[in-house]
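Hi everyone,

Forwarding the result from last night's run.
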Amino acid sequence: MTNTSDKVLVVTGSAGDWEIMDHCTKTLDNLGVAHRKIVASAHRQPDKLEAAMADFLAQGGQVFICAAGMAAHLAGVVASKTTLPVLAVPLAGGAMGGLDALLSMVQMPRGVPVGTLAIGKHGAINAAILATQILALNDADLAATLTDYKASLAA
């Protein structure tokens, strides 16, 4: 079940989040970035989250993408337990249509950074692209893939 080539771990707080986050994983697939995905609530399943993180880190994982709505503590919890990049995608679901999640994610305390993207689908896609850009810093082939991808957007 564990794939040592996975470089990105996409985590959502609930199974219903995949309607949006599938855009992230499809973008990672299109860019050729090996990844895995899990559902692990920071509030309801902290032990599952911690175990998944430990396994991912032990296998050489490099970037986390966390998606959550409402209180949106998932990315912050992950960031508190790693020095690797953590990207956050706020999702609609609370009374404020995702603004509540966005505000939770961008107001992290000093020393626990979380790179926060747009609410919803565009944030999910951009999280995949940003994770790929991070990985491409040390991967010339991936950098070339990104150059081609950006050129296709311009076309």
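The two ends are 39 Å apart (CA to CA).

Cheers,
N.
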